[in-house]
Amino acid sequence: MSSSTESLTKVISPARTLRGSLVLPGDKSISHRYALLAGLAEGTSKFSNFSTGADPHSSLKCMASLGATVSVHKNEVEVTGMAGEFLVPRQPLDCGNSGSTMRMLAGLVASQPGDFTFVGDESLTVRPMERIRKPLEQMGAKVTLTEGHAPMTVHGAKLKALSFEAPIASAQVKTAVLFAGLRAEGTTSVVESVRTRDHSEHALRAFGAELKRDGDRLYIAGGQKLKAIEATVPGDLSSATFFLCAALLFEDSNLVLDAVGLNPTRATLLDVISGMGGLVKVLDVQEQHGEMVGTIQVNRQKALRGFDITGALTASLIDEIPALAAIAPYTENGMKIRDAKELRVKESDRIALVVKNLRAMGAEVVEHEDGMDIPGGQKLSGGVIDSGLDHRIAMAFSIAALRAEGETTIHGAEAAAVSFPEFFDYLDELAIR
Ligand code: S3P
């Protein structure tokens, strides 16, 4: 791999195979939750292997703006929290590119006296925030949006508990309600029609909160206080996805990922990798603060098969779909993706950009409002990729490029740093040319 205009464009050349072992930087979703809850808790929390991505660092910066003391040394982070009472910042809380920061933190400040204004970058400014306005207003806060988006102001208030039936599959919305419920009067409960990632539940318990589950309903009593923790953040399985997909592309690949997060609400991907012809071995599984962590070894065992992603499977793979779609043309029988309308309101319209970039590499693909059909048995050629400044698009097409004929140019490659700044260096290490 060479790069021209270093920070903006990467040129990816084809590889012969992919081999090696890695310890991945900390999970983005878990790092956000640890940052936010540590900022509210009493005492000093210490994290190692904290995410190096820009997004969780937006959460840390917001906590500093709210009065917490934050120190960062590489991937070691310390946060001294505000023991339940945030300061009202003079400047807006800048969430950068991070929808997680904006939505989850809105829930946390909703019970605090004062007005909290949230801003973000261009992409975040068009992402839907109505989904958190409704439940937070039902609990008693006031949330002012700009045509349904940020800039957003949360006018904090004394909250009352809510019985919330989540209308969309979103862990961020669930979390906003649970975080608000932490300091509401009464017991808040949440039911999800589709079970989403449960990192908030584990993190809240780790910080000392009590949560109960009865069947599908989750309960959190108000008036709970949090205590600082020490934790090592598991490696990010969504970042691992790019290399796991790359390993599937080559018959003699071998990839070992140590200390990676294996939370069952995130690990559906491993079943998909097996279904596509990968041999997945999971070793040394341990639990840390409710999160499963282990080593995975993957190599390609059989022919590369496609996999249909629909229904509840779509929700559990939502961040992994760009990478899976980018390798779909190389499968024997292609891939059908449906029920993925949410992809249109991520950091970019991920359905439109995946379709556009697959076509830029010469692939045939049919776009649907809620997904796409990607026929298998296709040969791709190197093309010019537009990342749309979306991290997962930049990384997904860098992987597709490994099996293409000729070089692929990725514009907006710097977007990878939103979740995985080391991505291109690691790709260089693992790809054998
Ligand atoms: C996340 C939830 C998902 C996911 C995002 C991280 C989280 O978003 O796409 O990257 O950490 O809770 P939604 O809650 O909008 O589905």
UniProtKB/TrEMBL annotation:
Q: Which UniProt keywords apply?
A: Amino-acid biosynthesis, Aromatic amino acid biosynthesis, Cytoplasm, Transferase
**Which pathway does this polypeptide act in?**
Metabolic intermediate biosynthesis; chorismate biosynthesis; chorismate from D-erythrose 4-phosphate and phosphoenolpyruvate: step 6/7
Q: Which reaction does it catalyse?
A: 3-phosphoshikimate + phosphoenolpyruvate = 5-O-(1-carboxyvinyl)-3-phosphoshikimate + phosphate
According to the UniProt entry, its GO molecular function terms are:
3-phosphoshikimate 1-carboxyvinyltransferase activity
Q: Which residues form the active site?
A: 319 (proton acceptor)
Quick check: keyword DNA repair in the entry?
Answer: no
Query: Binding positions for 3-phosphoshikimate?
Result: 28-29, 33, 170, 172, 319, 346
Highest taxon above the source species = Bacteria
Q: Where is this chain's protein located in or outside the cell? A: Cytoplasm
What residues bind phosphoenolpyruvate, as annotated?
28, 99, 127, 172, 350, 392
Q: Which InterPro entries match?
A: Enolpyruvate_Tfrase_dom (IPR001986), Enolpyruvate_Tfrase_sf (IPR036968), EPSP_synthase (IPR006264), EPSP_synthase_CS (IPR023193), RNA3'P_cycl/enolpyr_Trfase_a/b (IPR013792)
Does the keyword section mention Transferase? yes
Q: State which Enzyme Commission number(s) the record gives.
A: 2.5.1.19
Task: Enumerate the SUPFAM superfamilies for this protein.
Answer: EPT/RTPC-like
**Which Gene3D superfamilies did the record assign?**
Enolpyruvate transferase domain
Taking every annotated instance into account, which residue ranges of this chain make up the domain Enolpyruvate transferase? 15-427
Predominant localisation class: cytoplasm
Q: How does it assemble?
A: Monomer.
User: Of which family is this protein a member?
Assistant: Belongs to the EPSP synthase family.
What job does the chain carry out? Catalyzes the transfer of the enolpyruvyl moiety of phosphoenolpyruvate (PEP) to the 5-hydroxyl of shikimate-3-phosphate (S3P) to produce enolpyruvyl shikimate-3-phosphate and inorganic phosphate.
- What's the name of the protein? 3-phosphoshikimate 1-carboxyvinyltransferase
Q: Which organism is it from?
A: Granulicella cerasi
Quick one: which gene encodes this? aroA
